[in-house]
Amino acid sequence: PMVQLSILGTKIYVIGSVEMMSLIQRQPRVISSRSWFAKFVCALVGCSSRSMGNFQAHLGASSTGDSMLLEGVRATKRILNSAKGTEMNYDAARIVSDRFKALRTPDGVPLDLFEWVKHEMLHLVSESAYGPNNPFWRPEIEKAFWYFEESTLAFCSTGFLPEFIRSKVIKGFQSRELLVQTLHRYLNGEDLLRGSPIVNTHFSLFKASLDDSDVARFECANALGSFANTIPTSFWMLYQVYSDQKLLTELRDQIKAITSTEVADDGALTVNRIDLRRLKSATILFSAIEEVSRLRAVGVGVRVVTEDTVVGEGVHRYLLKKGGWVLIANRALHSDKTIWGEDADQFVARRFCGKTPHLSFRGFGNGASACCGKNFAEYHIASFMAIMVMRYDISPVNGKWKDPGQDGRDTASQVAGPVESPMVHMELREDPCAVEWRFHC
After folding, report:
1. CA-to-CA dists, residue 289 to 346, 364, 403, 439, angstroms
2. In CATH, what number is assigned to the domain containing residue 179?
3. pTM score above 0.90
4. What's the pLDDT tens digit per position in 345-378?
5. How far is 257 from 338, CA to CA, in rounded Å?
6. 369: helix, coil or strand?
7. Range of the domain at 274
8. Is 371 annotated as a binding residue?
């Protein structure tokens, strides 16, 4: 149930069983994901000592004060569970349909599928979060973000080095600083007024507790959280759906069932409107998103032991020492055939349509570490996929889909991209001047 290691004097406890994970999750303050997350973010963004202290405050087992990190989580949940959250879902879908209305792909020109998804989804997600004309639309900022994302682990594993050395050994250092400067201008300009309620709320929280020079640094971490998993999940959705003709047909049928069609009097234009209020009824679509998160998970759940504690009983009773790290091996849990069945290593689109072993699914975290933006992320991906399957046919250049493998080196993300992205042809199914696809609510 647990493997114990010692690395450079730090105790590491690796969890690979649901039973032990359940025991760990019963002590969210003593075995804390948020304490680890706070340290991770501070190392990632390079903040001042004062900002670091405020961000990490009141997360210990015996703390009674209010935590800035927890207030941010609560504020995000309040927004996403309110009418504002529903409107954010609808706005995200409208942004998708508007973007794809204008999008054209050159006939017969091969596309690198993952690079295409990275570019398009960065545009879509950034507009949903930061509004139109946001800085991530600029090519140099888009490029800088991906350099920053690729260097995530390097930032966090070289924290003991002086800043001037880190700036030379980390490829993404200059990219991070460019992002910080750009987001600082955005957050202190008029464009912020057109940003989402979540970005504006986080800005207010940051301004109240952090040094002014660090506000944009912490927004870099928010951007990473918004993009880093949504984008590879969208890629794997395209791969899994378009490589399975039966699944593609089933998804199209479910989207058609929630679509109304209107033909112009002269017959020149057909407008198809997908009902956003009924999008959740496309059960295979949402199940497939969770199945991608299960099958393609590579990340680990990390927690810090904030005081000595004992978990388990009998022969499986363990003493966890203060300062140790608990690692929950997501892939091990997601591939356990005693939990998921003999097809645990296969993609089963309908797996989450019925009852599933909830505790064993860590695609969006679990317990106190569950992602508060899960529903928004899923809705965004579902909107993207709904428009894609109705508007486009995608086929591999070599005529046959082949699993491109997964880049398991990227354990900072919960879902990693491919080792080698497939080259594809992407073709419109209908004349875009004669047929439109939109969302309505």
Report:
1. 14, 11, 17, 20
2. 1.10.630.10
3. yes
4. 999 999 999 888 877 888 777 666 677 788 889 9
5. 36
6. helix
7. 2-440
8. yes
